[in-house]
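Example with several molecule types.
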Amino acid sequence: MTEFDPKDMEYRFLGNTGLRVSVLSYGGWLTVTDDSEKITKECFEEAWKHGVNFFDTAEVYANGECETVFGKVFKDLGWTRSDYVVSTKLYFGFGEKSPNGRGLSRKHLMEGMDKSLKRLQMDYVDIVFAHRPDREGVPMEEVVRAFTQIIQDGKALYWGTSEWSSFEIEHAHHIATKFGLIPPIAEQPEYSMLKRDRFEAEYYPLYQLYKYGTTVWSPLAGGILTGKYNDGYPAGTRYGDASSPVVKRNRSKWESPEGKAMIEKVKQLKSVAEELGCTTAQLALAFLLKNPNVSTIITGSTKVDQVKENMVALQVYRKLTDEHVENIEKILNNKPDYLKLY
Amino acid sequence: MTEFDPKDMEYRFLGNTGLRVSVLSYGGWLTVTDDSEKITKECFEEAWKHGVNFFDTAEVYANGECETVFGKVFKDLGWTRSDYVVSTKLYFGFGEKSPNGRGLSRKHLMEGMDKSLKRLQMDYVDIVFAHRPDREGVPMEEVVRAFTQIIQDGKALYWGTSEWSSFEIEHAHHIATKFGLIPPIAEQPEYSMLKRDRFEAEYYPLYQLYKYGTTVWSPLAGGILTGKYNDGYPAGTRYGDASSPVVKRNRSKWESPEGKAMIEKVKQLKSVAEELGCTTAQLALAFLLKNPNVSTIITGSTKVDQVKENMVALQVYRKLTDEHVENIEKILNNKPDYLKLY
Amino acid sequence: MTEFDPKDMEYRFLGNTGLRVSVLSYGGWLTVTDDSEKITKECFEEAWKHGVNFFDTAEVYANGECETVFGKVFKDLGWTRSDYVVSTKLYFGFGEKSPNGRGLSRKHLMEGMDKSLKRLQMDYVDIVFAHRPDREGVPMEEVVRAFTQIIQDGKALYWGTSEWSSFEIEHAHHIATKFGLIPPIAEQPEYSMLKRDRFEAEYYPLYQLYKYGTTVWSPLAGGILTGKYNDGYPAGTRYGDASSPVVKRNRSKWESPEGKAMIEKVKQLKSVAEELGCTTAQLALAFLLKNPNVSTIITGSTKVDQVKENMVALQVYRKLTDEHVENIEKILNNKPDYLKLY
Amino acid sequence: MTEFDPKDMEYRFLGNTGLRVSVLSYGGWLTVTDDSEKITKECFEEAWKHGVNFFDTAEVYANGECETVFGKVFKDLGWTRSDYVVSTKLYFGFGEKSPNGRGLSRKHLMEGMDKSLKRLQMDYVDIVFAHRPDREGVPMEEVVRAFTQIIQDGKALYWGTSEWSSFEIEHAHHIATKFGLIPPIAEQPEYSMLKRDRFEAEYYPLYQLYKYGTTVWSPLAGGILTGKYNDGYPAGTRYGDASSPVVKRNRSKWESPEGKAMIEKVKQLKSVAEELGCTTAQLALAFLLKNPNVSTIITGSTKVDQVKENMVALQVYRKLTDEHVENIEKILNNKPDYLKLY
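Resulting structure tokens for the full complex:
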């Protein structure tokens, strides 16, 4: 068993809580393969060596298989429970055609929580997220009551939101105030150099009012910020197989005038990265780390080498001067203005 | 004195209140002329004849002069106070360089309310609106406390918002719940056939949660929906004088690809209007009246004839079938989807 | 009448309110003379020219005479009420041997408020402070209820504390929460380069929790920070007359080892001031302005020239670099540490 | 099994609760030895014979070993659970480099509580204390929510504070009021004849407002009040080994002018003790027992004889007249004044 050693990792409070998470964290995967357990274990160990203490998954990832593998790996590694932080996310269910098999009804939240814990072989997760808002009619009171009960039952220490609008997050706080329930403490939002409006502007008052925490996903904008699509879609990459409908949709997005403009920016970022002696991906992570409203960036990877490479972002972030940031802002030219957005 | 007669006007509750407002109402003007008092009186009388019972103004309109003239006209006409509904709006102050001369601080709200009432020669208005959100740092608790006190002091019966985001309106409700204060009951939003997203999608949950009321302004999209700019900018119209910077800005908006597409839609609407034997403007008002979340449409005009013409929209609205609406929707092709917008 | 012009003054929100006060403000005097009215008017006008919009007094200053003169001068000057901010402070009463003639009982607060407003010839002050905590037995509930009623009666817009402990301020907030009353929004504390513990350490959590505002008094530590006592007590200065018991007490304070060490620091500050081309007093004010938890510094003076000189502190503050501050901190060597103080 | 017999012990309510604790209680030890279990059992039995019913430990004492031994001894002795009161304290964790391994985050409190109970082999403790305030950023709402849940989960009957400032204790009460949670009921403070300010003055309003309880530690001021350091540091005593840095630090404290003055007082107290036929240590305990705001004094000792000797303090306290107290106060000359302290 590798004992936990924070080394030179940076830890931040997850929003207005006393829970400390490493600013770079490790996220679960969407597709399962024969050696998922072996690879996951290796990636966990590599991340652990760098001081990563936060691991994120979801019921829907690989239809529950991701949680199952996470559970086995945690057990196998035998780490002290207080040394690491685990989160999962409920909403999508999986493979269930039943009308109550997904969403944020009390029924799905209570049943889904128990199923997740069973797969994870844990008594509790540290954070449980509502993986999406439920706009099909479930009242917010039901949602906040269910999460409050999950916490009071000892099955989670905190609850959060994922991809909710600022209106919905504020409404959840309103309902918590009204009924004396427990409000959510963090959002798991998409945020990257190329997608900033919601994170930086729409959520701005939430940081002011609640010191709302954030566990960022897709920090590399689906891989575009690695620069690997700067000159087309190499075979073997995510967008390499043009026959898949998902790939088609994404390619057409990147080939639109807006998409091309973004790729142009990525190319320019490359020269800043080179100056700093790092990859565009590392620069993209480092830039987000400069934002104090980022609690942690969830990096996903199923290769040990990539885990290692991601961790270098921490060094880059420490080297990033105000001047670098200014140059990057000039290239991006997409800094949102809270006062004007509305 | 003309006694009030509802005739064939339609009255709707202003949101979740017991206050009934005519679905077509009369709004104050921004510029004062020598005969403002005379014209305003004539317009009031014309509207009154059609059953209009709601008159809207603001401290900032013509730097207080609009309120002053409204006050004189109401006094002159001698109508029974319970027959009509008056609203004003606080935020902008006027002519004051003083740091506390505008905004939503308790100081400006209390002082501004008293000044408005003095100009209006009234003990109270029916509704006072926050003419804008104050994003420069005044806490929502202060805003809601001040409006609550204004109501408890008997200076207004209700308070509302104008051009607030749904987040801000929900935050005001949260604060009212938290401290046992009085929440706002209606929004004064911009809404027209050509600008629908905020009204129909962003505010959608507010209608569900609070039956939030609305007093619509700019229902003709700055005049474009009259069709008078279908073929350029005639002299004597609002956009006729190309030397004014405001006009220049607006013209360039209408001459952009998006602007041209809108004017194209207005042209197509004209044929629907002709079929119904009405003007495009009347059709534009009638279409909004079909939306049950519209409490009232504020029509502004400083010509008696135009007041008369606006009132015809009520007849058009009553003739508008589902089939007409469907045709209009096809032409507009801009129906927002709440579920997708976020 | 001199119209208000903010010029290059800086305005800050008074804590977590929407009320903006000039960072340098003008405070009332403790002793009345024959030409108090004339001098006060001249000082008001001088301050006004520099953009000062906040004027502070107290019932006890010159046994009510300060309020009376302030009232006359405001009336005489005819300034627009929304352009300026007035505060007064209740607690000490004056000249009253009656058991209920002072303190924070509801009786004294309600009676004292009305008397102050009468002397000031105003309907309301912007802020009313509790000039001291009342530790003789009046329950906090009574205090918070009385100030809440004063505000709801329209006699003040906000209430604050003066020389309260952080415990007492937190207790007032607790009581306000418990009974749905209005909490205090700012403290009027003694704060200077030579007296920092309470302001910077004891109150620290209040800035975090409530963004509590501050209207600083005695920023020159009773004159010592002017440097005029660096070499004894010149005749004509506050401590010049050795026959007064107050002077004796103060002299012995400054002649103690601690007092001498402080005077030594003041001498060293003089060289920093000279480098910046300003007086020690101006440097002392400028240093406080660098603290973002200072809402405003109340400068007291009954000489027009001194008002003028005080205003220069604003320029000094704008010139003060991090390096200057660092040098000053080395000289002062009294920076309090919140974490260690308790 | 020795049946419980209150004999002539005095029991006091622990603050504003229905829980009765013996005024002299027994506290856990910081260092473990081979015969810790045997000695602890003997001391427990001796205390028990005198009617002691309250036993205090902490997760950090001897890195969890103190709890483990307490657990074994309680099991071994087989006393009826309702006859005794056990408290533990959470905050410091032990041996964990992990960012979440200590402090007052919900994570550490929930995990720490479970670990403590496992070591103690108990389903619940009577009182759990927050061993320190957490000033590194954990919000009070999180702390009070976690302790409330620990109580509602049946893992503790009450919660308390240790070495918190009066501000922090009041803030905890505020948060409990605000969210309908359970407030702390007692403080575990350092208090002795030589350290009185916080206990007697700072906490004074807490006794008035909440009848706040106290479980005093270090009543002999680290042994100085035994008088054994009156003439230097004998070998074999805590401060006997001059090579230890802790000892050096403490020695230099006692050798400062203030330290010497204190030892002088201890010498004078000896004559009062002799007059009463007791030791200085017994007098020191008896003097504290005269303070009705003391709920219990935690006496620590790992020698049966010393337990016996401590118990004599109860007799001394009963003999202590007002005149004795007056004499002691003259010697101590350090009675704090609540009204002047702030």
